[in-house]
Design brief:
Number of helices: 6
Helix content: 10-25%
Oligomer: single chain
Distance between the termini: 17 Å
Shape: globular
Largest sheet: 6 strands, mixed
Strand content: 25-35%
Strand order of the largest sheet: 3-2-1-10-11-12
Length: 267
């Protein structure tokens, strides 16, 4: 049986991290040994050099394959010159030169999309060029691969107040990506974990999977630090997928499973 595992982290906001939670994430990652760790943006709080250094140290301690994309917090806010002239300078020095990386092995295809725009404060956007590029990459996927697209801002809201945070261009992007073979779109930004089906224009099934904040004290309401673990099984034409939500338990100083969602995929 082919089994793949993806650890989905988001909104770490280094500069506001809680050290015991950081240690717990590292321990969880070591115990799971995922194919890839996905960081769906807002890796730092204010794109400052010390915050990027803390993020770099975290990735080094993680010691696993990673795919990271920037979030709006990873672009300087108060350093106007840097925001205009070199908005991704700090990110590239600490995290990597690629703003839209791709991870692929025989079990997982994960495609990063940079939805930040330096001209915007927080709203994200996806362009026609990005939509087409991702479609082309999805169409090259192997039959047994779990096909993931990673963005920062959500493409579907489950709380009315979050509709203002939805990704601009999603109405064109999501149906095109689903038709091209996408199974899951991962996101963050709003610090609210959930799994929701995506509206499609075909019979294909696809899902939005949102993560909470992994290690920051900037949690949303009563929701603790949380991460997602995605497991995908493929054997003899049968495919199954589940998303586990793991929340941080302060008493046990560890992450524990609090929810399991079984996803129906199309093949």
């Amino acid at each position: 049986m082919r089994v793949s595992r993806v650890l989905h982290l988001s909104d770490t906001h280094f500069g506001t991290e809680v050290e015991p939670v950081v240690d717990a994430v590292l321990e969880l990652a070591r115990s799971l040994m995922p194919d890839v760790v996905v960081l769906s943006g807002d890796i730092t709080q204010r794109a400052r050099s010390g915050q990027f250094a803390a993020a770099r140290s975290f990735l080094s301690r993680l010691g696993l394959p990673t795919l990271a994309i920037p979030g709006n917090h990873d672009i300087p806010l108060f350093n106007v010159a840097a925001r205009i002239l070199n908005p991704y300078g700090g990110y590239r020095r600490a995290i990597g030169m690629a703003l839209e990386p791709v991870f692929s092995n025989d079990r997982v295809l994960a495609i990063g999309v940079n939805t930040t725009r330096p001209s915007r404060h927080k709203n994200g956007e996806v362009s026609r060029e990005q939509i087409n590029r991702v479609c082309a990459q999805l169409r090259q996927a192997h039959p047994h691969q779990l096909r993931i697209v990673v963005v920062h801002q959500p493409v579907r809201a489950v709380v009315e107040s979050d509709t203002r945070n939805l990704l601009i261009g999603r109405e064109s992007a999501v149906p095109a990506w689903v038709d091209a073979g996408m199974d899951i779109v991962l996101g963050g930004h709003i610090h609210l974990p959930y799994v929701a089906p995506l509206p499609t224009r075909s019979a294909r099934r696809a899902w939005a999977v949102q993560a909470g904040t992994a290690v920051s004290h900037r949690v949303r309401g009563s929701i603790p630090n949380s991460v997602n673990v995605i497991e995908h099984h493929a054997e003899d034409g049968h495919v199954s997928c589940r998303v586990q939500r793991w929340d941080y338990d302060a008493g046990g100083k560890a992450f524990a499973v609090v929810d399991n969602a079984v996803l129906e995929l199309s093949r």
